[in-house]
Specification:
This protein is an alpha/beta fold and about 625 residues long. About 25% of the residues lie in helices and about 20% in strands. The strands form five sheets. It has an eight-stranded parallel beta barrel, surrounded by four helices. Strands 20, 21, 22, 23, 24, 25 and 26 form a seven-stranded antiparallel beta sheet that branches. A hairpin with a 2-residue loop joins strand 5 and strand 6. Helix 11 (about 455-470) packs parallel to helix 14.
């Protein structure tokens, strides 16, 4: 029966419940050999007995049933004898996502939703991506009216902070309905990043003000998107199609047993996700599910981009098809992901969305662990430093990241840490970053790997230097929320279920370390103001990006002869990780100094007329003529 299902899947839109005041039609893609498939109708989203049970009929490859009468505000489940499920594509659910909800979708739209518009992003190179977790961002903010909720991102303090900082895209950690937080116990502190999907196409109830009301979570998510869009900020959704919370109780398994998952030759479940299971994106039904899901988030919620968790678990053909289908809706939709898996997948690596295969996936980007670990040290050893901590032979990995992971004649790939050949066809296929929610945040990593830090001032110097490398890279820059506040997580490596005391942003740091926020703000503005930092084209990068000879511990480059929208024809960036002032030879000229000693000033009157530049310890020097 799987063969028949595969053929039908090409056209299936997963419209499992269709409501009108006169009748509600239910459709389920499940095995034809299933017996006794039923729809159960409930008055509540949790608890109570079914008020109606209707048998479904198998017609034209689908199980269908039509219930007469007005079922508005009722709840439903499908039952195939293995357990009840809201289906695989519920669009509204009750508390904890156990039952689908029958709602009037027009009631989910906030005022003026029809006039909402996507921010105009001409190129991914123009993005500055800010990754946040809803609870981290707002739970400790004293003036937040909705701490830890979607609506926190509609509040003036939140919008003003993001606009001050200058980021133009917010990457929200998993915001669909996930399984590790009990929505019936929100009076008790609970925390999880949310990488444990239950209902992929419904907002998470714990981030709403009323998880029992199916309309509330949808409307408040849309209000969040609307507020960010009005501020000119794109919204990127973290999607986790590579695994489910578990297998036996998953909506996939309860609907079509074993179809959605990969198995090994010994018929055990493959575990490339590291979470006990791995979905089978190459199967037509799963591929179609992923395509319809991202299209639904774009059409219904106006999402501007998608970050694919463990993209290395998904096959290349599926990822390319998703790119093509989204481009039909809007070519500017940004797609990026983790170009790796957490374990061996049941498909060979050459078929998967691994970082090494990104050149086969046009219009899709991946994170660069080369520049990340070149800067701070390897992911698997918190104690081992990178270039920032004085480790030798890291410069080439950083240069590779600054070039955007493309082929560049001055990057010696034999000296790059993880890749021995370029993997990006275009610089916009590389995400430049030094930390994210995974692993230690930047401050903690510096403290852990450089125990001889002389003082807090040295910590700040290295923090700012790291972000300068990221923000002047030709890739797409990405930062973890709170880094602009000198965030720490008390040296916790994996804080996915740590309490608020570990994960929350300390907003008082904005007053404690004003120089840090100011530098981040001015650095982002510098990138946005001068297009030479975001050329967005591999040929232009190879033409205009020239690396300069520099001593150990220093990475220096020139953006030369680029006539952008300003008079900065030549820009020189020198990054010095050494603990002493270091001198670098530069092309002779008359330069204006716009970044020195942890201060950025584009209107600076400071000049250098020389062929040598002295760079202060652990800092960046940026010049232009």
């Amino acid at each position: 029966m799987i063969v028949a299902t595969a053929a039908r899947a090409q056209d299936f839109d997963f419209n499992e419940m269709e409501y009108t005041p006169e009748q509600t039609t239910f459709r389920l893609f499940a095995p034809a050999k299933a017996k006794g498939v039923k729809v159960r109708i409930y008055n509540q989203g949790l608890g109570g007995k079914a008020v109606k049970t209707v048998s479904m009929k198998y017609v034209g490859g689908l199980w269908t049933a039509t219930v007469r009468g007005d079922l508005l505000n009722k709840f439903y489940t499908f039952d195939m004898g293995r357990g009840e499920t809201p289906g695989v594509f519920a669009k509204a659910v009750g508390v904890n996502g156990r039952r689908g909800a029958i709602i009037n979708n027009m009631k989910t739209c906030p005022a003026d939703w029809s006039s909402d518009r996507h921010p105009v992003i001409k190129s991914p190179a123009d993005l500055v991506v800010y990754e946040l977790h809803h609870r981290d961002f707002s739970i400790a903010r004293k003036d937040a009216k909705y701490p830890g909720k979607f609506l926190a991102l509609t509040e003036p303090w939140a919008i003003e902070h993001l606009k001050q900082l200058g980021v133009n895209a917010v990457h929200i950690l998993p915001s669909y309905d996930y399984g590790s937080v009990d929505e019936t116990r929100l009076s008790q502190p609970q925390y999880n990043w949310g990488y444990d999907p239950v209902n992929y196409n419904v907002p998470e109830g714990s981030y709403s003000t009323d998880p029992y009301d199916p309309v509330c979570r949808i409307r408040e998510f849309k209000q969040m998107v609307q507020a960010l869009h009005k501020a000119g900020i794109a919204v990127i959704l973290d999607v986790v199609y590579n695994h489910t919370y578990d297998i036996d109780h998953s909506n996939f398994q309860l609907t079509y047993p074993d179809y959605y998952y990969r198995k090994t030759p010994t018929q055990s479940y493959s575990n490339g996700s590291g979470c006990g299971n791995e979905t089978a994106s190459e199967k037509p039904l799963m591929r179609r599910f992923m395509i319809e899901s991202v299209k639904y988030w774009y059409n219904e919620y106006r999402i501007d981009g998608f970050r694919f968790d463990l993209m290395g678990c998904h096959d290349i053909e599926t990822m390319n098809t998703i790119r093509q289908e989204l481009s039909k809706l809007d070519p500017s939709i940004f797609i990026y992901g983790e170009g790796w898996s957490a374990g061996a997948c049941a498909l060979p690596n050459e078929q998967l969305g691994m970082k090494a295969n990104i050149s086969q996936m046009p219009g899709i980007a991946a994170f660069s662990d080369e520049i990340r670990d070149g800067l701070r040290g390897p992911f698997d050893d918190d104690k081992k430093p990178g270039w920032l901590g004085g480790a030798p032979d890291c410069e080439e990995s950083i240069k590779f990241g600054i070039a955007g992971a493309i082929a560049h004649p001055q990057v010696d790939m034999t000296k790059v840490n993880y890749s021995k050949k370029p993997w990006a066809a275009e610089p916009t296929q590389m995400m430049a970053y030094v930390s994210c929610h995974d692993d230690m945040c930047l401050v903690d990593r510096l403290r852990s790997s450089i125990p001889a830090l002389a003082a807090e001032a040295e910590l700040i110097r290295l923090d700012l230097l790291a972000q300068t490398a990221v923000m002047t890279s030709q890739g797409v820059p990405f930062m973890l929320s709170g880094e602009e506040l000198l965030r720490n997580k008390k040296l916790v490596h994996n804080s996915f279920e740590s309490p608020d005391s570990i994960n929350q942003l300390d907003w008082q740091n904005k007053e404690r370390y004003p120089q840090v926020f100011k530098y981040y703000r001015d650095l982002i503005a510098l990138r946005k103001n001068h297009p030479a930092f975001r050329l967005g084209d591999a040929h232009l990068v190879r033409k205009h990006l020239e690396f300069l000879d520099a001593p150990a511990g220093v990475v220096a480059f020139r953006l030369k002869d680029y006539a952008g929208r300003d008079d900065w024809r030549n820009i020189i960036v020198i990054l010095n990780a050494n603990r002493e002032t270091t001198t670098v030879d530069i092309p002779k000229g008359a330069y204006t100094v716009v970044c020195k000693d942890g201060v950025i000033d584009e209107r600076s009157a400071m000049t250098i007329s020389d062929c040598r530049a002295a760079v202060s310890p652990q800092s960046a020097l940026i010049l232009h003529d």
